[in-house]
Fold:
Amino acid sequence: MIRIAIAGCGEHSRASHAAPLARYAAAHPDQIELVAACDLDMDKAVEFCRSFGFVRPYKDLDQMLSVEKPDACVSVMPIEKIVEVGIKLLERCMPCVIEKPLGTSLAEIEKLGQVARDTQTPHMVSVNRRFMPYLNQARSWMSEQGPLRYVRATQVRHQRNEADFIWSTAIHVLDALRYIAGEIVTFDVMQPTALWYVIALRFESGTIGRIEILPTAGMVEESYEFFAEGCRARVTAGAGPQRSLRCWQDGELVIESEATEEQPEDLRNGAYQEVEEFVRALQTGARPQPCIDDILPSARISFAIGELARQRRT
Structure:
């Protein structure tokens, strides 16, 4: 039995971590136990436990870790606390899940990565796109068709005006393309507005790509497209059940699938599959994937894109 605790009881923690953990615990009651939840707001921690089946609420993280001695901890912190809490868990040799973007600066993220390498603590970075079922189905199908020629991703949001969007949120789509097409060797940036980015990419494999980041375009959607000789795959992901997969080969639509309202969000967006991977790794003694070193290139490029855009504006 693996005893899991969670640090942070905010909205993202509820939807992207607690919900799939509770679903997994209900389906596999002999495999994991949700032992404790911690938040600076004790009332929030109490309600969180009641809603998702965690046994005991805590207000202090050190107390929770000392008293409960969990086998693993999921850390869902505000960006400015990610590194502090991540280092605490890694230095305690506590297997953990750490939320992206892994810090507020590249220096912070590199420090976190060094602690992970020094301690060798098993850990996983939460980047759910790598576990999204439709994206993985497209990845698998395209790998059977031949080498990728071109990849494209578009991230559209509504009223996301934060200056850090390019490295705090858009890292998701950049990392997803790295996961699909391999390592990025060069990039360039065109910035039609202060918050919008069009990014050209070239990968080690010779594949070329493009990312469009449009955080104030009036809706919520992500799309991923992959092209090879004679074939194309398109994955759409958005709010609620707005998820689909379509694949074309030699002029014919050969795969078509759409999510339904009945499918829970955590099963559609990869959050549940992320839990499955983390639990599997803990059970077998394997290293959870992806780890900080897997995500560091995405973070480095995201910060570099932001800096290049800033230099061009000034």
